[in-house]
Amino acid sequence: MKTTEIAQSSNSKWLMFGRDNEKPNKIIDTNQYMLVAGQRALLMDPGGIELFAPMLGAVLRHASVEHITDIFASHQDPDIISSLGLWDQALPNAKLHSPWLWEGFIRHFGMNNIEYVAVPDEGGTIDLGSHSVEMVPAHYLHSSGNFHIYDPSCKLLMSGDVGAALEDVDAPLYVDNFEQHIPKMKGFHQRWMPSNAAKLDWINRVRKLDIEIMAPQHGRIFTGENVGKFLDWFEALDVGTAIK
């Protein structure tokens, strides 16, 4: 599993874990993220159970077990949080920040030690002491209870399934040519994003944020002008096409 530092501020750094050539062939490739700030770390959408061993080995190179105090799960999908039962053993004193709507479902992955912090629909903040991030509502994109993480210091939005593209594990990490990247995203967004109203609400919300990096759960990371290009493209895209 590859580890890449994708952003930093005076007291923090963002790491992306993914592009795992040793993952099972029929498991989609996912991007996992960790924010390290001082003596604390926030692990975000830590992955499926099949990836736990390489993920644990990767994150421990950058933060000790004692320093990983918080976990974030944007929604209930197994590809981002089915490893919870194993993290529950590795990080018994951590807190899991996740939508209130999905607590009864997410606990099926195993939670005996980690504390569940239910996030209300309007979102909130995760305070890491020297650093804090915002949980931005992204409901129905694609989950009915869903959040993204915005770090104003690094001007980074961890955007979950929004911006996702299903690609090979050897694909580049960053979007270089936006127009050539569109075919890799279009079908996914039209089928998995069910609501144009929810899409527009999210776009209006994130346009108010200062974003230089948009880091989705699958595929490549958007930087610079490609962030705005994605928002313009997504705004014009008709989604929820399976019911037509």
Task: Summarize the entry for a quick read.
The chain is of the alpha/beta class. It has one domain: Metallo-beta-lactamase, Chain A. It has helices spanning 52-59, 78-81, 84-90, 103-106, 178-192, 196-206, 225-236, and strands at 2-9, 12-18, 32-37, 40-44, 68-72, 95-99, 115-119, 124-127, 132-137, 147-151, 156-160, 213-216, 222-223.
Give an overview in words.
The chain has a single domain, classed as Metallo-beta-lactamase, Chain A (4-Layer Sandwich), CATH 3.60.15.10. By secondary structure, the chain is α/β, with parallel strands linked by helices. The radius of gyration is 17 Å and the shape is globular. Helices cover 25% and strands 27% of the residues. Strand 8 and strand 9 (132-137) form a beta hairpin. Strands 1-2-3-4-5-6-7 form a 7-stranded mixed sheet, with helices on one face. A 6-stranded mixed sheet has the order 8-9-10-11-12-13, with helices on one face. The mean pLDDT is 95. The termini are far apart. This is Flavoprotein. InterPro entries: Metallo-B-lactamas, ODP_dom, RibonucZ/Hydroxyglut_hydro. It comes from Catenovulum maritimum.
Kindly report how far apart the N and C termini lie. Answer: 40 Å
Number of folding domains?
1
Supply the CATH class. Answer: Alpha Beta
Number of strands: 13
- The CATH homologous superfamily name equals Ribonuclease Z/Hydroxyacylglutathione hydrolase-like
**Biggest β-sheet strands, sense, barrel:** 7 strands, mixed
CATH architecture: 4-Layer Sandwich
CATH level 3 topology: Metallo-beta-lactamase, Chain A
Count helical runs: 7
Structural class: alpha/beta
Tell me, briefly, the overall form: globular
Q: Reading side by side through the largest sheet, how are the strands ordered?
A: 1-2-3-4-5-6-7
How much of the sequence is in beta strands?
25-35%
Rg over CA atoms, rounded to whole Å, is 17 Å
